Amino acid sequence: MNPNLSQFGTQMSNLTGVRAIMKDIIETLRTGEGQDFINLSAGNPVILPEVEQLWRDCTEQLLASSEYGEVICRYGSSQGYQPLIEAIANDFNQRYGLNLTERNILITPGSQSIYFYATNAFGGYTTSGKLKQVVLPLSPDYTGYGGVCLTPEAVVAYKPALEIDEKAHHFKYRPDFSQLTITEETGCVIFSRPCNPTGNVLTQEEVKKIADLAASFDVPVLIDSAYAPPFPALNFTEMTPVFGSNIIHCMSLSKAGLPGERVGIAIGDPKLIGILESFQTNLCIHSPRYGQAIAARAIASGALAKISSNIIRPYYASKFDVLENTLDQSMPEELPWFLHRGEGAIFAWLWLQDLPITDWELYQELKKVGVIVVPGSTFFPGLREDWSHKQQCLRISLTASNEEIEVAMQRLAKVVQSVYQRSTVNV
Ligand SMILES: Cc1ncc(COP(=O)(O)O)c(C=O)c1O
């Protein structure tokens, strides 16, 4: 059977970004008999015992409660499970001095679905045939934004400015406000903070500047807070969420130990939330309620926020330190390697300036020494212009053990050294 696909069918049946590489990685792990790979490609969070226990406890409470049948044996509202919405409103009002009501909150099956609803509700062609862009103000960014929009040409990303500390072998991306364009042709703006893949945290001022630019044209700004405080609190630098009339604050419980249950949260103006909610009703009626019910307990008790800052954050922050220290010790001083400042998320981002081969070729070389990372070029959705930097980066997951990270970074240092050396010899 070879079905004829529609334009949307063709678009959605293609794997984009990391999902496409994952196929190659799974194949490599399956066929690489006898070779022990250190897999630093994973975006799947580590199962931390304290976190698992929290969800086990919440499940036991749910099972023991009279609510159980109501939660799983009946349909609920599209907007989400009421006790979870209340728990979030109370927590955020108290924590950030807001005045949220239930009308400000939507629960979705994972946060990825928020980006699907938003990029297609605000981006794409209007009824009068005008293209509304989905603007990614700071490339590289989350690869998933490349696959969610049914109108791929709508997604437009902007090249960053680079702040480089040559001596320390560090760098940081900054939004380039001299280039960033938000106009009446913009449908919505999206960025992750902390950022997957780079760990970058945009400053309060940068966020406000982007939100103000967008507000002049009534453009919603989605701040993807999948790694932000209060849960999972995967920020290693101080940061406070930014709220505003045109900001949709998007959260995920996936990195707080619940990726399997698919719980996403959108907080924003009731009008914007209402649009996303209608999209959701049409798509899937509502989010599954078991995950929502246990999340309501974990948030209302304060346990999730506590475990996030006491357990989840230090776990990944210390992995980043191990990675950084190992690279400092093993990478040759004279090579132009730069680690992005580790400000959050569960990845490190390495830039190898003037790398003589592509990131894909380096990925293949690393596989030969048993190390799997993700080539960086997949993290530039919407950035169409040629830019050699796109082929000079790697995303390294912090989900492996300390020993694995150390060994992998030592092997990476050797491979990188020989790659640069080979090119000097060839010259
Ligand atoms: C930045 C970012 N946004 C969104 C998502 C999707 O998360 P969810 O599991 O909530 O759909 C991820 C997943 O890794 C992510 O890294």
From TrEMBL:
Family annotation (SUPFAM superfamilies): PLP-dependent transferases
GO CC terms: cytosol
GO MF annotations, alphabetized: pyridoxal phosphate binding; valine-pyruvate transaminase activity
Residue span(s) of domain Aminotransferase class I/classII large: 37-412
Keyword Nuclease: no
Domain of life (superkingdom): Bacteria
InterPro entries listed in its UniProt record: Aminotransferase_I/II_large (IPR004839), Class-I_PLP-dep_aminotransf (IPR050859), PyrdxlP-dep_Trfase (IPR015424), PyrdxlP-dep_Trfase_major (IPR015421)
Keywords: Aminotransferase, Pyridoxal phosphate, Pyruvate, Transferase
GO annotation, biological process: alpha-amino acid metabolic process
Recorded coiled-coil stretches: none
Stated name of the protein: Alanine-alpha-ketoisovalerate (Or valine-pyruvate) aminotransferase
